[in-house]
Known about the structure:
Elements: E1 9-11, H1 26-35, E2 40-43, H2 50-60, E3 65-69, H3 76-80, E4 81-86, E5 89-94, H4 96-103, E6 106-110, H5 119-127, E7 132-135, E8 140-143, E9 149-154, H6 167-170, E10 174-177, H7 183-194, H8 198-212, H9 225-236, H10 241-250, H11 257-270
Parallel strand pairs: 2-9, 2-10, 3-6, 6-9
Antiparallel strand pairs: 1-3, 4-5, 7-8
The structure holds adenosine-5'-diphosphate (ADP).
Amino acid sequence: MAAVMPQHDRTPASDGQPYYRPVAGECELFEVAFRHRLPLLLKGPTGCGKTRFVAHMAARLGRPLYTVACHDDLTAADLSGRYLLQGGETRWVDGPLTRAVREGGICYLDEVVEARRDVTVVIHPLTDDRRVLPLERTGELLHAPPEFMLVVSYNPGYQHVLKNLKPSTRQRFVSMEFDFPPPEAEAEIVAAETGLSGERCAALVNLAARLRALKGRDLDEGVSTRLLVYCATLVQAGMRIDEAARYTLVEPLSDDPDVRAALGELVEMTF
Ligand code: ADP
């Protein structure tokens, strides 16, 4: 019997809408999927806005959101629930997926491929027209209300043979590909998030495009929108732009001194 429940965030439905700049009709697709009770799969690199998008849509649709960052020790019981020893008594405690089903909320499983294989066993019956969650340990069979929605994400860039989404799972979701926003939109996002001037944000986005061009050759992942936001935050706090870029757009990308030197040269050429 485990002593703790897994880490997850619950965002109540009453929170204000987190800022999200739509890029290509994704809000409409989410809404249609929600209205028609279809589960959604978001594919895309880290830091490109998937989590923010789900948070925005949950608030917009007025549903509580349960976000679980999946990792390789995460099991089906972590999502559905388990018996815990509390004050000398054994009590059933719902996991985040079960709570989302009971409350008619949205459950977002971030990086779902990282989780243990048995997680697919609990999510499959929720992703077809049965929309049920069997809780074997308590003998309950929960029917998801119309407002319940399952959203999962994964990063195809990290994929390897053992950590791949099985076709039988993948084909249960409406799927949407995410990527870094186009330059104009990305500059707008960085400006909105940090208050840095449009001109300086455009310069950062320009640099990001050059750094991203190195992906595949020297880098596994391109610089994310999240890192651009970090960079602009440091600049807005008074740091020189080339220095901020070193801490946020060069150092986090690689530990290889040669790669870092090449990235550093690009930064120097830009500023
Ligand atoms: P992911 O879940 O894809 O790893 P996040 O949703 O956490 O990425 O995005 C990282 C950051 O990038 C957000 O905190 C936000 O500042 C910014 N961001 C990226 N795309 C958008 C967008 N379209 N609108 C608003 N902010 C965005």
